[in-house]
Structure formats: structure tokens, C-alpha cells
Design goal:
Elements: H1 3-12, H2 22-58, H3 73-79
Length: about 90
């Protein structure tokens, strides 16, 4: 799957068929999705901190937006590590 490895394999084993296995593709996809989820969580934390600071300046109580399931965006992103890979029925 790596371009560098592809060149090495083609030179070393010129008549071999190249195969990409499902496990490693799933591993790469899972890692990429987790990276996006973590970045979104960091953005949510930053946004929430800014909103808390603004409420302190205005001397009002901070109330985060809550989704239908009772989670805030920050909580949902923290708990959703495997949620994206489950079947819709679950």
C-alpha cells in the first residue's frame, strides 16, 4: 500500500501479484476516522472554553447545547470512538 514498498516489491518480485488485505485497509480507515474524531473533539473543547470565558465576562451561567440523547458535543465525541463502526441497527 506504500508507494515506496510498491517499487521495491515490483523490482524484487516482478511476476508476483500484489494484494492489499482487508485488515490493513480497515486499520488505516479506522485510524483516519479516529484522528478526525479527536480533532473535532479538540475543536469542541476549544469552542466550549471560549463560550465559558464569554459567559464569565457577561456574568451569566454557561449552559451547553444538549443533543437528543442527553450528551453535549464534547461528550458525544469522547464516547463515539467505536460508534461510527457499529451497524445502524445497534
Amino acid at each position: 500500500m506504500s508507494p515506496a514498498m510498491d517499487a521495491i516489491i515490483r523490482n524484487s518480485f516482478s511476476s508476483a501479484d500484489l494484494v492489499t488485505d482487508r485488515f490493513h485497509v480497515q486499520q488505516l480507515v479506522s485510524g483516519a476516522v479516529q484522528e478526525i474524531r479527536i480533532n473535532l473533539r479538540r475543536e469542541a473543547l476549544k469552542k466550549e472554553n471560549e463560550e465559558i470565558k464569554q459567559c464569565r465576562k457577561e456574568k451569566t451561567r454557561y449552559v451547553p447545547a444538549i443533543f437528543e440523547n442527553g450528551d453535549t458535543q464534547k461528550q458525544l465525541l469522547a464516547r463515539s470512538q467505536y460508534l461510527l463502526f457499529k451497524a445502524e441497527s445497534k
